[in-house]
Design brief:
14 strands, 452 residues, nine-stranded mixed beta sheet
């Protein structure tokens, strides 16, 4: 007997799985003056909190980028979800394709998205980033209704804890003109400052691996910083990520200097073609055939980009991000493809709050062969919308077995951060690291690639 769609929905109504309301709350959260190759983080960065409410009273939480171009796509998708089932996840991509359309802000095929320095920006990538937040919210609501953790809905966890890496940044002591929220981290503009930052991360959170955001200073300065980290933390995994700021020759020169201390080199050059050149040269020069692995969160961020990168052996590790790939289930599909091609897998971090970090932890718990600690910005974010912040223990997060994501929203805090968004004149509602840098240096323009 074939079950009709109407009959299935009627049966689901009895269990309260129909979506009756979707709430979108754009917010602005404090962000420190962290430097990257495009500029500096703004004093506040936009995030979007998604809440899906079911007929049975379950509420699911999701989080994604909150820039205006994402919010413009999220609104029609939120309207279209009412009356659907939180379990209808396989139909979400087609629904998003149908109702979201293309964002006018996403038509520049050469633009690089500063919101995560994620490579070429397209309308499809924007739509997937929006879709991811709704999928997570539906999974969270479904988990609450079924009294199951999200990882159980994904097939069950294979680990009880997920390892994370300290995310080190060159940074100023404060934002230009004293804007934003103060913190006590101080400046980190040289090797000593980076090592001091790493020691604090290790002491406070127990992190045992370290990633430096590069592409800020000349390569020799960043090589010196990595070598200082290697001396301070002998034998512990180190990564360097200049966000594609280097030429192929510069990438190879840096790799030659750091091949014996780096766990991997992330996006040294921009695009699959340059990464292929770097990888091939490293294989040829690698002692005993063991080349320094290349990782990416820029040239492999959609399924369409996999074939060229994998068949040409441009990358050895993909740093996935469930926002980029369209959700937690798509992340698991990516993991399976990586296993098939013998490509390693870890996870990239955006400027996330606790909802995104919880979702990331749940899917990471279900992926076999997660061979590297995941990235996280979370310790840099002094503000959150949760009733209780997630806590790192020995550099890892415990995987929650509570229903859904295992987190709850603080209504007062969410409202306060939304009021900040409402009060903004629009200048901070879309992340722009170059504009933030121009406050300090009016002549700043985003450097051409390669920068060195």
């Amino acid at each position: 007997m074939v079950t009709t769609d109407a009959a299935r929905r009627a049966a689901a109504d009895a269990t309260g799985l129909t979506i009756t309301e979707v709430r979108l709350t754009p917010i602005l959260i404090a962000d420190p003056p962290l430097l990257n190759t495009q500029g500096v983080h703004q004093p506040y960065t936009p995030r979007l909190i998604i809440e899906v409410v079911t007929a049975g009273g379950a509420t699911g939480l999701g989080e994604t980028y909150g820039d205006t171009k994402y919010l413009d796509l999220a609104r029609p998708l939120a309207d279209a979800l009412t009356g659907r089932l939180v379990t209808d996840l396989n139909t979400l991509p087609a629904l998003a394709d149908r109702v979201c359309g293309e964002s006018p802000a996403a038509t520049d095929a050469a633009a690089v998205d500063a919101g995560g320095l994620r490579g070429v920006q397209t309308a499809d990538k924007l739509r997937l980033s929006v879709l991811s937040g709704f999928e997570v919210a539906c999974l969270d609501a479904w988990g609450h209704a079924a009294r199951l953790p999200v990882h159980a809905l994904l097939g069950g966890k294979v680990r009880d804890r997920v390892d994370y890496s300290a995310y080190l940044f060159y940074r100023w002591a404060q934002h230009p003109e004293g804007r934003g929220e103060p913190d006590d981290w101080g400046a980190a503009l040289d090797p000593a400052g980076i090592v001091a930052q790493a020691r604090r991360f290790a002491g406070t959170y127990g992190f045992a691996s370290f990633k430096l955001k590069g592409g800020v200073f000349a390569p020799d300065q960043e090589i010196a910083a990595v070598k200082a980290l290697a001396a301070a933390f002998p034998g512990q995994p180190l990564r360097l990520d200049p966000n594609g700021a280097w030429s192929v020759p510069t990438s190879l020169a840096v790799a030659a200097e750091l091949h014996d201390v780096l766990e991997y080199l992330e996006d040294p050059a921009s695009g699959t073609d340059r990464m292929t050149e770097v990888a091939a040269a490293l294989r040829e020069a690698g002692p005993g055939g063991h080349a320094l692995p290349l990782a990416t969160n820029m040239c492999v961020t959609t399924f369409d980009e996999i074939e060229a990168a994998f068949t040409r052996r441009a990358v050895q590790i993909v740093l996935c991000d469930h926002h980029y790939w369209g959700g937690l289930r798509a992340t698991r599909e990516l993991a399976a493809l990586c296993r098939a091609f013998g490509v390693g897998l870890s996870m990239h971090s955006n400027t996330h709050l606790g909802i995104s970090l919880a979702a990331m932890t749940h899917v990471a718990a279900t992926v076999p062969g997660l061979g590297h600690a995941c990235d996280t910005h979370y310790p840099w974010q002094s503000e959150d919308v949760l009733t209780e912040r997630l806590t790192f223990r020995d550099g890892a997060l415990d995987v929650s077995d509570a229903p859904g994501l295992g987190v709850a929203v603080d209504r007062d805090r969410l409202a306060a951060l939304h009021r900040r968004w409402l009060a903004d004149d629009g200048g901070l509602r879309s992340r722009d690291d170059a504009a933030a840098m121009r406050v300090a240096d009016p002549g700043w323009v985003t450097p051409a690639v390669p920068r060195w």
